[in-house]
Amino acid sequence: MLDEPLVQELLNEVVQAEENLSIVECLINGTNTDEEIAEKTEIKLNIVRKILYKLYDSGLASYKRSKDPETQWYTYSWEFDAAGVNNQIKEKSASKIADLKENLELEENNMFFVCPEGHSRFAFDQASELGFICPECGNESTFQENDSIINRIKEEIANYEKAYSFSIPENAK
Ligand SMILES: [Zn+2]
Questions:
Q1: Span from the CA of 122 to the centroid of ligand 1 (angstroms)
Q2: FRET label pair with 85: which of 3, 100, 112, 161, CA 20 to 30 Å apart?
Q3: Where does the chain cross the membrane (predicted)?
């Protein structure tokens, strides 16, 4: 599941350093105590703990606490939360799709005028108020064909829609 670009993106935001992804990998593969994870990954125990709590904080991992009846010590058994990952990917995709659709509507319903030197880009009404002059350099704004922009937005929407329907198996190992 770590091959999935969206999963990677999400996890990278949480674990920050790429080498810490091996902690997540270990967890996914069923190693569930901080000490065992530290041993397997050769990452310092305090870093492993920090990352586990970050995952917990982000809703991507959960833990169960139990008391050893003999030593009276608590042990924490950690689990990766695939459902949490799926939910977050869905949420992110949904909000991206909403933004892109708004953008698409704007592009489809307007004519755009741009500065030949790339300083500014205005929809017709605003460009006309400015007398079709770039406020920055005073050059005349020219009509810009925006088909390629529209196509790019449509493509991006399609990608996020694919991501939205994506989900990793919740018992994935
Ligand atoms: Zn300009």
A1: 11
A2: 100
A3: none
